Amino acid sequence: MTAPDLSIDPFSDQVLRDPYPFFEQLRELAPVVTLPTYGCYAVGRYKEAFELVSHPERFVSSYGMGMSNIQEPGAWRTASPISEIDPPVHTRVRKALAKILSPSVIRQWQHAFEQEAEQVVDRAVELGTVDGIKDICERFVLSVFPRVLGVDVSPELFIAIGDMNFNQLGPNNERTQASVANAQPYLAKYEQSFQRASMIAGGFGEQIFEAEDAGELLPGTATAHVRSFLRGGVDTTISGIGFALNQLARNSLQWDLLRTEPNRSRNAFDEAIRHESPAQVLFRTTLEETELGGVRLRARTKVAYFIGAANRDPRKWLDPDTYDMTRRGLSSQLAFGGGPHMCIGQLIAKLEADSVLGALTRKVARMEPAGEPEYRLVNTLRTLDRLPLRLHAA
Ligand code: HEM
Predict the structure, then answer these.
(1) Domain tally for the chain?
(2) Terminal-residue alpha carbon distance, the chain
(3) Does ligand 1 come within 6 angstroms of the Cβ of 283?
(4) Nearest residue CA, atom 3 of ligand 1?
(5) Strand intervals (E) in the chain
(6) 85 lines ligand 1 (CB under 6 A)
(7) Is the pLDDT of residue 75 over 80?
(8) Residue nearest to atom 24 of ligand 1 (CA)
(9) Which of 20, 83, 96, 387 gives the lowest tally of CB atoms within 10 Å of its CB?
(10) Is residue 150 assigned to a domain?
(11) How do beta strands 295-297 and 302-306 pair?
(12) Phi, psi of 305 (to 5 degrees)
């Protein structure tokens, strides 16, 4: 079988605003479709998405995790020294970084994260009516994450640069070009922020440079590694905690369950990013002609894997459009990817979410919507821009 054409632009305003009808068409048409506008394949079913990320020998990352082929002239983004390499080199690099970001290292940050979350939530409760994104998610993540990484960057810079990065993973469309222009005033400061001389002592960025000195990372890659952590660790986490807050404000039974059993906060977060996945789509490239889901694929061709679609595939999930933190099998969801490139920062994101949800369950009796949430349209990231909430103190 060859991959049938799906002539819908996944990166149009209409689809980005509400991607779920497109995801259904993508899943129902075939296990693999062709997106003729972009000359690439796409998968939306869980089974094929999982197979794609689990076989780096057939579906490589070294041509770029985005739509742009970073090995050809004209690529519109710079490569990552961790996400855009393949085994066996990736295995060695990943091992060195996993040592720096081990679970025991991350656990040491718990107290500081919890204290910061308490302060952010105390202020929000005092305000009563807040924007959950600006007043809680951005305020918290932009305070704790840059600090543990050891970089000093302003919140405005993060948002402008984040939009540019996640747009650039998709096509070089008007949205990408506008976000590049928007990020222009911040680029010099951004580039400077991940140089060795800018690292704040005690952050894990410093250790990345030391690992390069020790020969554990490829020579000359430490700055790009710090940039990769900045790229991967901020917008995704703000988005994911934002979706958890949105669902908990809209589902009082789920909120009550979390308040009575706060140890469910990991599941509350995991389910939030299954239900609305921050990283919506990423890419691999076929090395040679191959087969996926019974479909023949050409060599050297990009394959988009739509995480947001796979995480709502009814073949895998019962009642997939419903938010339910008691759902079984959440650890197999794809919001953090899968296979060798599965998110290396997921424990950090989970600790951040635990800290915020923990502080909220202690200090807030009831949380309700104070208006409609607004999404920000970014090619490959699903994220809220505004989340009006009313908080009732416990
Ligand atoms: C809710 C929050 C997060 C989400 C949804 C998320 C999502 C993802 C996904 C889908 C991948 C796989 C990429 C691929 O398939 O090519 C990934 C990889 C990665 N993430 Fe995350 N991420 C999150 C938080 C973080 C944090 C906090 C950090 C920073 C420490 C981080 C750093 C990275 C890095 C460096 C990789 C590349 C790993 C590799 O290629 O081996 N992410 N992330």
Answers:
(1) 1
(2) 59
(3) no
(4) 236
(5) 33-35, 40-43, 59-60, 129-131, 281-286, 290-292, 295-297, 302-306, 364-369, 374-377, 382-386, 388-393
(6) no
(7) no
(8) 233
(9) 20
(10) yes
(11) unpaired
(12) -110, 120
**Ligand 1 pocket mutation pick from 106, 145, 343, 357 by most atoms within 8 angstroms of CB:** 343
Show the domain range for 252. 13-393
Q: How many Å apart are CA 139 and CA 155, to the nearest integer?
A: 8
Predicted confidence band at 73 (pLDDT cuts at 50, 70, 90)?
confident
Q: pLDDT tens, 246-296? A: 999 999 999 999 999 999 999 999 999 999 999 999 999 999 999 999 999
Ligand 1 centroid to 227 CA: how many Å?
13
Q: Which residue has the tokens 């899968």?
A: 338
Instruction: Judge whether 1 lies within some domain.
Output: no
Can you give the CATH number for the domain in which 80 is found? 1.10.630.10
Q: Ligand 1 pocket, 224 CB below 6 A? A: no
Question: How many angstroms separate the alpha carbon of residue 201 from the centre of ligand 1?
Answer: 24
Classify residue 3: in a domain, yes or no.
Answer: no
CA of 53, closest atom in ligand 1: 15
- Residue 80 Cα, ligand 1 centroid: separation in angstroms? 12
Quote the mean pLDDT of the chain: 96
**108 in a structural domain:** yes
Determine if ligand 1 sits within 6 Å of the CB of residue 348.
yes
CA distance 155 to 122: 20
State pLDDT tens for residues 201-222: 999 999 999 999 999 999 999 9
